TrEMBL record:
E.C. code: 6.3.2.9
Residues covered by the Mur ligase central domain: 108-286
Keywords: ATP-binding, Cell cycle, Cell division, Cell shape, Cell wall biogenesis/degradation, Cytoplasm, Ligase, Nucleotide-binding, Peptidoglycan synthesis
InterPro entries: Mur-like_cat_sf (IPR036565), Mur_ligase_C (IPR004101), Mur_ligase_C_dom_sf (IPR036615), Mur_ligase_cen (IPR013221), MurD (IPR005762)
Annotated protein name in UniProt: UDP-N-acetylmuramoylalanine--D-glutamate ligase
Organism in which the protein naturally occurs: Coprobacter tertius
Length: 445
């Protein structure tokens, strides 16, 4: 009898896993607690895959041989608890897809910078002529590509949620950019649980594989001392340190790759800011490990277009620059944004708080921010922390109101920065929706 594979969640990840399971000849059923988007229904129907929406029917799910769970479904969901009681294996889409491809995997995680680094790495590899796919948190689902394409390499952005249910999957090149508190609501407010999830990116790595990481991250260094890895280590840092493979010297970035060293001037990078320096280092090391020519790496770093909703310049109106950083869904992301600001800032903050500690940005706020606009359903925590620390703090209950207030509070030479520190689900469908609304409101000023 065919093995029964149940897919929970029918978004990009779940639909891709369902198609791969069908192509491999399994008995497949898809169940989504929410309504399934028409685009994904059309794909499921095209492959004759049975599905249900708006519910999980236990009789159709608890007879599974294996379950592929979408990353957004938390462990405490009742259907997951029921599956655990029956000892039915639960895996991620990435784990499932990894079984059916021999492609080399370049995997990227971190609390911040992973989308930029993933797209930058993909841009370098693709421009150098490699047969490469883009997957994970960006691009198409890995499983769908494994089912329908034939790539030699994949560049994959992995969130902690995707890493949670990976067991036998292996990254040939693993990149860990940084670890700062995020998603603690999903990890029982225990930082170590979140750290353990991030370190799963190194799981199953051997002496043939490579681990690239930020050398100055205290959490990463502590973990490496406690759990030495088999993989070859390629750390990067802001300044030259023992064993570091990429660093900055004067206004140059030095990449000490396995076979040759090369230099990129800081002015040649298309992406500004200290955090993008690190993202560029990580992408460059991974490209060099794959024997991509230094001139190809230089060219790709200088013509790369940035990521939407990440320090995205929207418009300059009446001498004020408006910047969309809606992707900043945690405090550390906002820290990077503020750190790169060179003018007085009107900061739009707020949303669904994930257990945030705002002390990390306190100094930067005091030094750079003239006004805060709290955009959320419940702004009490922001007021408790920031009241009295800056000249002006006010509330807004819609993006239009927030942008109009920012317009009134700003003067020529200022920057209005949307960098919310929080998830978007209180007032918006997603951080993309939040950023799109911001851009539309700014353009309508």
């Amino acid at each position: 009898m065919n093995k029964r594979i149940i897919i929970l969640g029918a978004g990009e990840s779940g639909t891709g896993a369902a198609v791969l399971a069908k192509v491999k000849g399994f008995d497949v059923f898809v169940s989504d607690m929410s309504l399934i988007k028409d685009h994904y229904k059309e794909i499921l129907n095209r492959y004759n895959i049975e599905w249900e929406e708006g519910k999980h029917t236990p009789e159709l799910i608890l007879n599974a041989d294996e379950v592929v769970k979408s990353p957004g479904i938390p462990e405490k969901a009742p259907i997951i608890q029921a599956l655990r009681e029956k000892n039915i294996p639960i895996i991620s889409e990435i784990e499932f897809a990894g079984r059916y491809t021999k492609a080399k995997m370049v995997c990227i995680t971190g609390s911040n910078g992973k989308t930029t680094t993933t797209l930058l790495t993909y841009h370098i590899l693709k421009n150098a002529g490699l047969n490469v796919g883009l997957a994970g948190n960006v691009g198409k689902s890995l499983a769908l590509q494994v089912a329908t394409e034939n790539y030699d390499y994949y560049v994959i952005e992995l969130s902690s949620f995707q890493l949670d249910n990976m067991y036998d999957f292996k990254a040939n090149i693993a990149i860990l950019l940084n670890i700062t508190p995020d998603h603690l609501d999903r990890y029982e407010y225990n930082m170590q649980n979140y750290i353990d999830a991030k370190f799963r990116i190194t799981r199953n790595q051997t002496h043939d594989d490579v681990f690239i990481y930020w050398n100055d991250d205290p959490i990463i260094n502590k973990e490496l001392k406690q759990h030495p890895l088999k993989a070859r280590l390629f750390p990067f840092a802001e300044e030259k340190e023992d064993g570091v493979k990429a660093y900055k010297e004067n206004h140059n970035i030095i990449i000490d790759a396995p076979d040759e060293s090369f230099t990129i001037t800081e002015d040649d990078l298309s992406l500004p800011g200290r955090h993008n320096l690190f993202n560029s280092m990580a992408a460059s090391i991974s490209a060099k490990v794959l024997d991509i020519k230094k001139e190809d790496i230089r060219a790709a770093l200088s013509d790369f277009q940035g990521v939407e909703h990440r320090l995205e310049k929207v418009a300059r109106i009446r001498g004020v620059q408006y910047i969309n950083d809606s992707k900043a869904t945690n405090v550390n992301s906002c820290w990077y944004a503020l750190e790169s600001m060179r003018t007085p800032v009107v900061l739009i903050l707020g949303g669904k708080d994930k257990g945030n500690d705002y002390t990390e940005i306190e100094r930067l706020v005091k030094n750079k921010v003239k006004a805060i606009i709290c955009l959320g359903v419940d702004n009490r925590k922001l007021h408790t922390f920031f009241d009295g620390k800056i000249p002006t703090i006010t509330d807004a209950s819609s993006m239009k109101e927030a942008v109009n207030k920012a317009y009134e509070l700003s003067q020529p030479g200022d920057t209005v920065l949307l960098s919310p520190c929080c998830a978007s689900f209180d007032l918006f469908k997603s951080y993309e929706d939040r950023g799109d609304q911001f851009k539309e409101c700014v353009r309508n000023l």
